[in-house]
Each structure stands twice: as C-alpha cells, then as structure tokens.
Amino acid sequence: MPPNVRAYFSKLCDAVVEFNPHEDEEIALTKHLETPVVRRKKRKVLGSKSKLDYASIFDWLSCRQRAEDMSLDQAFRDYVRIFELEPDQYETVKSAYNKVRRARLSHMLPAERTKDI
What superkingdom heads the lineage (predicted)? Predict the structure, then answer.
C-alpha cells in the first residue's frame, strides 16, 4: 500500500461525521475519489407516494382508462408522459400494473382458478 493512502483515508474519515438520519446533507464520492461532495439528501415528503408505487399505478391506470374511455396501452403511455418518466419505463409500469392485477384477482377468485391469470 502506498505510504500516503493511510493518511488520506484517516483525513477523509475525520471529515465524515457520524451518520444522522435527520440531517439534510450527505457526503457523496465522485468519480475522482479525492474530491468528496457534500450534497442535499433527497427526501421523500411524508405521505407522498412514489411514481412507481404498484398500487397507485394500478389505480391511476384503471381510473384513467374508465374516465377517458381509452385502451390500456394508451393509459400506459399517458402515465409515462404525465409523470415524466423515462420512455423505457413503459415496461416497468406495465409490469407493475399486471402484478397488482394478478394479486387483486387472486384474492377474489378461488385458488384453482388463479393459475390461468
């Protein structure tokens, strides 16, 4: 190990304060390890849901489909557009919808009929 590595890491560790989940800042290393960056933590607002929360995706898509009388595929595309998701997250939204649909149907139907869903 090079002689200055131990000094570098001890200096870096001295700069890092014990983790406190209530603070608004965090230390992030960049691609250049010698320059750590202090940045604000991304905090989720209490009571808010993620754009990729499975149940909220299902409910939103179902309501949109019924209210606008559109196809499910068009509702998927609207969800991605309205919530400003990346275009490649279309499949993620579709997968989340289908998982919740299967789960909800399995609780409504007898066990032997859920194999075909």
Answer: Bacteria
